[in-house]
């Protein structure tokens, strides 16, 4: 990877909560999609807000919460997605990540995958 490519990349971790409106209603935690199919967007947002509050207040660590609650397979890496550049993630996710400073945690971000909170790590 050239240094100019690396300079345009960010690194982030996230926590994804899927819901009825998610494009893929299954995850590593819910392979049949039973819980996801019964989860409303509002319920997913409420759960994510509580998790975010615990992280921001210092009651919980982002990577531990991601490992336990995220519907993304990145949960096994504490939510770490590794480095990525523009055009590699869904637009709302990409925009939110690029707008964060390293160490900052986003508010709720909606994508076709579900609802997320994102922490920029690099």
Automatic annotation (TrEMBL):
<feature type="domain" description="PpiC">
    <location>
        <begin position="7"/>
        <end position="122"/>
    </location>
</feature>
<dbReference type="GO" id="GO:0003755">
    <property type="term" value="F:peptidyl-prolyl cis-trans isomerase activity"/>
</dbReference>
<dbReference type="InterPro" id="IPR051370">
    <property type="entry name" value="PPIase_Pin1"/>
</dbReference>
<keyword id="KW-0413">Isomerase</keyword>
<comment type="function">
    <text>Prolyl cis/trans isomerase with specificity for phospho-Ser-Pro bonds.</text>
</comment>
<comment type="similarity">
    <text>Belongs to the PpiC/parvulin rotamase family.</text>
</comment>
<feature type="compositionally biased region" description="Polar residues">
    <location>
        <begin position="1"/>
        <end position="11"/>
    </location>
</feature>
<feature type="region of interest" description="Disordered">
    <location>
        <begin position="1"/>
        <end position="34"/>
    </location>
</feature>
<keyword id="KW-0697">Rotamase</keyword>
<dbReference type="GO" id="GO:0005634">
    <property type="term" value="C:nucleus"/>
</dbReference>
<feature type="compositionally biased region" description="Basic residues">
    <location>
        <begin position="16"/>
        <end position="26"/>
    </location>
</feature>
<dbReference type="Pfam" id="PF00639">
    <property type="entry name" value="Rotamase"/>
</dbReference>
<dbReference type="InterPro" id="IPR046357">
    <property type="entry name" value="PPIase_dom_sf"/>
</dbReference>
<dbReference type="GO" id="GO:0005829">
    <property type="term" value="C:cytosol"/>
</dbReference>
<protein>
    <recommendedName>
        <fullName>Peptidyl-prolyl cis-trans isomerase</fullName>
        <ecNumber>5.2.1.8</ecNumber>
    </recommendedName>
</protein>
<dbReference type="InterPro" id="IPR000297">
    <property type="entry name" value="PPIase_PpiC"/>
</dbReference>
<dbReference type="InterPro" id="IPR023058">
    <property type="entry name" value="PPIase_PpiC_CS"/>
</dbReference>
